[in-house]
C-alpha cells in the first residue's frame, strides 16, 4: 500500500538580503534609507553591528528536497544556522521560498517560538478560540476541546488572564496544548519545549507521539536534544549550511550530526547565537568562548580545561557569577561547576580566564554551556546571559585509562573515581 504524502519539498531555496531596511519604525527606515543614499553611516545601526555585509545575500536554504508521509514523526537536526527554523517557517507560511515548490496536504498547526500565534492583550481562553478560528474551526468545535486544552496546559488558574502576564513557561504550556489538541493534520514544533519543565516536556513528547500513532497526524520536530529526537521520531533529516546531508534512520542521522559538530576551532564568536527567553537580559552578552593554549578542542584524561570568556556589559556589575554546565554529546548533563566568589564586570568588554577541573570525566564528546548570573538579596539566581551546548570538545582516552578497557557510560556513568587501593588480602 502506497503511503500518503502530506508534505513535498522540491528544490527549495531561501535567500535573505543582509543589511536591508524593513525591521523598525517608518521614521527609522526613512533615516536609514536617506543615510544610504548619501553614503553616510546608518544612524540606526546597533552598537557592534558589522556594516560590511550590506547589500550582500545569505542563502539560508540551498536546494532542499524531501517528502513527509501521513502519520510520520520526522526529526530535523543540524547546527546553528543550518536552516532548520527557516524550513519550518516556510512550511508554516510565515515566509515564502525564493525558489522551488512546497506542496502541503492538510492544515498545519505551528509552534515556532514562544508567543507565536498569541495576541498578548487577549486572555488564554480567548487565544484558544483565536487559534481555532485561524485553523477554520467553528466555535462549537473549539468548545468541544477547550476543557481538554486547559487541563493539559496546567494553566486553568490563569486561563482568563491576558497572556502578556504569563511567564515564558506558561506561554509554552498553553501554546503547545492549543497546537496539539486543535484539528490540524500536521503539527510543526521548533525547539520551544526547552523552556518548560522536564515533567511537562515528557508530557508533550508523549502527546506528540500519541497524535501521530492514534490520530494519524504528522509531526515535524526540530531539536538540539538528541534524547528527545530518539524518543519521538521514526525518521530524521540532517541539515548543514542549507542542504540536506542525510535523510533516514534516526540513529544514523544522530551519528552524522554529532560528527559534524566536532569543531576544530578553539575560539568561537557566539555574539549572534540565538538565546532562550530566560537569557535575554540584554545588559550582558557573552561574545566569545574558547580554550587557552589549545590548538584543537580536545583534552586528555585527567587534564584540566582552561577556558576563555569574553563578556560585554552595558553597566558595571559588582558581583556576577559564572556557571559552566558540561553535557555529553547527546545532551545528557554530566556535571556543573560555578565560581565560588562574585566577579566584578566593568562596562564594556571583559575577558575572563577560567580553569575547570574535568579530570574525572571519562573519554567521549562533550559540550560547555556557560551561564552568567547574579544573586539577589534573597539568595536566588537572576540569569543575565547563557548559551546551551555552544562549545563542543573531546576527552581522549589514554593507555593508562581504566586498564585499556572501553568505558561503558550506560553502566558506569560519565565520571571516573581514583583507582582502588588494596589494603590487605587474606
TrEMBL record:
Residues 46-266 form the ABC transporter domain. The keyword RNA-binding does not apply. One of its GO terms (cellular component) is membrane. InterPro entries: AAA+_ATPase, ABC_transporter-like_ATP-bd, ABC_transpr_TagH-like, Bact_Polysacc_Export_ATP-bd, P-loop_NTPase, Wzt_C. It holds the Pfam family ABC_tran. Keywords: ATP-binding, Hydrolase, Nucleotide-binding, Transport. Belongs to the ABC transporter superfamily. This is Teichoic acids export ATP-binding protein TagH. It comes from Thomasclavelia cocleata. The lineage of its organism: Bacteria, Bacillati, Bacillota, Erysipelotrichia, Erysipelotrichales. The gene is tagH_3.
Amino acid at each position: 500500500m502506497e503511503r500518503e504524502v502530506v508534505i513535498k519539498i522540491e528544490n527549495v531555496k531561501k535567500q535573505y538580503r543582509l543589511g536591508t531596511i524593513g525591521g523598525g519604525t517608518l521614521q527609522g527606515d526613512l533615516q536609514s534609507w536617506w543615510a544610504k543614499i548619501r553614503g553616510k553611516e546608518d544612524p540606526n545601526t546597533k552598537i557592534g553591528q558589522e556594516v560590511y555585509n550590506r547589500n550582500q545575500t545569505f542563502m539560508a536554504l540551498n536546494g532542499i528536497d524531501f517528502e513527509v508521509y501521513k502519520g510520520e514523526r520526522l526529526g530535523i537536526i543540524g547546527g546553528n544556522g543550518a536552516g532548520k527554523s527557516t524550513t519550518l517557517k516556510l512550511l508554516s507560511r510565515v515566509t515564502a521560498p525564493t525558489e522551488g515548490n512546497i506542496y502541503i496536504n492538510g492544515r498545519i498547526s505551528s509552534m515556532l517560538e514562544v508567543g507565536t500565534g498569541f495576541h498578548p492583550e487577549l486572555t488564554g481562553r480567548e487565544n484558544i478560540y483565536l487559534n481555532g478560528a485561524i485553523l477554520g474551526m467553528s466555535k462549537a468545535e473549539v468548545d468541544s476541546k477547550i476543557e481538554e486544552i486547559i487541563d493539559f496546559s496546567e494553566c486553568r488558574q490563569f486561563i482568563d488572564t491576558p497572556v502578556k502576564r504569563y511567564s515564558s513557561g506558561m506561554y509554552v504550556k498553553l501554546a503547545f496544548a492549543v497546537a496539539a489538541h486543535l484539528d490540524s493534520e500536521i503539527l510543526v514544533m521548533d525547539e520551544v519545549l526547552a523552556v518548560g519543565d522536564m515533567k511537562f516536556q515528557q508530557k508533550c513528547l508523549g502527546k506528540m507521539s500519541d497524535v501521530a500513532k492514534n490520530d494519524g497526524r504528522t509531526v515535524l520536530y526540530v531539536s538540539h536534544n538528541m534524547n528527545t529526537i530518539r524518543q519521538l521520531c521514526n525518521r530524521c533529516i540532517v541539515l548543514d549550511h542549507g542542504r540536506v546531508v542525510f535523510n533516514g534512520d534516526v540513529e544514523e542521522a544522530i551519528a552524522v550530526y554529532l560528527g559534524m559538530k566536532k569543531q576544530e576551532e578553539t575560539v568561537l564568536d557566539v555574539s549572534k547565537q540565538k538565546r532562550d527567553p530566560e537569557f535575554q537580559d540584554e545588559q550582558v552578552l557573552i561574545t566569545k568562548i574558547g580554550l587557552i593554549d589549545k590548538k584543537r578542542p580536545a583534552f586528555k584524561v585527567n587534564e584540566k580545561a582552561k577556558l576563555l570568556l569574553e563578556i560585554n556589559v552595558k553597566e558595571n556589575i559588582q558581583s556576577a557569577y559564572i556557571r559552566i554546565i558540561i553535557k555529553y554529546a547527546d545532551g545528557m548533563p554530566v556535571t556543573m561547576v560555578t565560581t565560588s566568589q562574585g566577579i566584578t564586570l566593568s562596562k564594556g568588554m571583559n575577558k575572563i580566564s577560567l580553569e575547570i577541573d574535568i579530570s574525572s570525566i571519562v573519554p567521549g564528546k562533550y559540550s560547555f554551556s556557560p551561564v552568567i548570573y547574579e544573586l539577589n538579596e534573597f539568595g536566588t539566581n537572576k540569569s543575565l546571559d547563557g548559551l546551551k551546548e555552544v562549545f563542543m570538545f573531546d576527552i581522549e582516552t589514554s593507555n593508562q585509562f581504566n586498564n585499556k578497557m572501553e568505558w561503558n557510560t550506560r553502566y558506569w556513568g560519565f565520571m571516573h573515581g581514583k583507582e582502588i587501593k588494596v589494603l590487605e588480602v587474606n
